[in-house]
Amino acid sequence: GDVNEFKDFAKAMVDYVGNYLENIRDRRVLPTVEPGYLRPLIPETAPDTPDTWQEVMSDIERVIMPGVTHWHSPKFHAYFPTANSYPAIVADILSDSIACIGFTWIASPACTELEVVMLDWLGKMLDLPKEFLACSGGKGGGVIQGTASEATLVALLGAKAKTMQRVKEAHPDWKDSDIIANLVGYCSGKHSTTGHAGLAGGVVPLRRFKPNTPQSKKLCSAFICPENIEEDLKKGKIPFYVVATLGTTNCCAFDCLEEIGQVCRQKDVWLHVDAAYAGSAFICPENRYLMKGVELADSFNFNPHKWMLVTFDCSAMWLKDPSWVVNAFNVDPLYLKHDQQGSAPDYRHWQIPLGRRFRSLKLWFVLRLLGVKYLQEYIRKQISLAKEFEQLVRSDDRFEVIYEVLMGLVCFRLKGPNEINEKLLKRINGNGKIHLVPSKIRDVYFLRMAVCSRYSESSDMIYSWNEIKTLTEELLKEEKE
Ligand code: PLP
């Protein structure tokens, strides 16, 4: 199309987006459409001759918005947050315009080099050990992955390569297939991504650590068991990979990283840290006690695209020794070779796909235009909103808060059987004024209230709580009848 038309269209879109986001609170957070709602709203085939951008714009409210779940509404409390901010949106316009594929340094030097430096900036914001940072001059460095799941898989493949080499040196007569068959990895969290990584990585699904005793509902979700590893060693297994979770998906529990890390160091097992959601909170020094022991890890990952105002996808990963991953992925056909090879990371070796977007621009814009202090205050405010909601729940003795509130997540339930809680949640989501998802731990079903929106205020906590209380009263009344 014509550039003047592009400029008009883009300006109109920027106006639309600004209005959408600033007024998002007024929309029903959950759509009411039925499956299949969309097909009848648009033609059966693509147009032969172009529509106008004005026609396209006018279809957004008609076709798209009725089927949107508004993740950035302060009435959205499901899952975990996914980030959104104006600097990140603008950065993506630039990234989509440069539209390079940054698989080698020469394919766009800025794409690689900004990423190296941004991961150093970010690592310093979290006070990560310098062994993880490229600026330390050692082997370590960071990379942006698409998702935490990819980071878990990438680390697993590095761990596998490292262990294969160690075992083969000790037992040159062992076949690869026999070694692989005996590899065993461990995780604490129940997150499906870790299981996927085990399967996709061609090793058995990762074994779970025994969970901690039920009365300690606080920090340690995994009761790290040197016994797990000892037992497996005795059986001839080869422990090679542990994923420790800081901030589990279902209840935001934290593994005892220090304890797990010491076992990993003793047994030469790769320790990967998945801090997908909670990692952003480590930009605030007061939360860093939860990542004590991080110096014992081999790789560390968190998602700025969850809680640090950088839009999806931006999953930050650091490796102390990326050479294991690089060797596992090395793809070097002639057309990807270049003269500067080795002087800067060729990030294609650090990830699963070959192609990669210029994602570090989003980080650069967000960090510069918001600044570290603002981001710290943002995290603090979201945690304090969760604590406000917690107090509202605690003020009503029909309810219980079942895990300590450390981040922006409150896990709560109506005292009593699971069924009544299931009914309550169905009502909440059916009413569509607010949106929550449940979870279940040791057969106890509960509701999760995550503070997700950057627009969230105290009044939103009160609004959501009042909605829950009203529907509870209706439900309890009906149950009595
Ligand atoms: N790990 C944890 C602890 C998570 O909470 C989540 C998502 O909520 C993930 C991994 C998956 O993240 P991604 O969608 O980036 O793979």
Automatic annotation (TrEMBL):
Gene3D superfamilies: Aspartate Aminotransferase, domain 1, dopa decarboxylase, N-terminal domain, Type I PLP-dependent aspartate aminotransferase-like (Major domain)
GO molecular function, one term: aromatic-L-amino-acid decarboxylase activity
EC numbers for this chain: 4.1.1.28
Enzyme class: lyase
GO cellular component assignments: cytoplasm
PROSITE patterns, sorted: DDC_GAD_HDC_YDC
N6-(pyridoxal phosphate)lysine modified-residue sites: 306
Cofactor(s), by name: pyridoxal 5'-phosphate
Quaternary organization: Homodimer.
Record family assignment: Belongs to the group II decarboxylase family.
Name of the protein this chain belongs to: Aromatic-L-amino-acid decarboxylase
Species of provenance: Diaphorina citri
Lineage, opening ranks: Eukaryota, Metazoa, Ecdysozoa, Arthropoda, Hexapoda
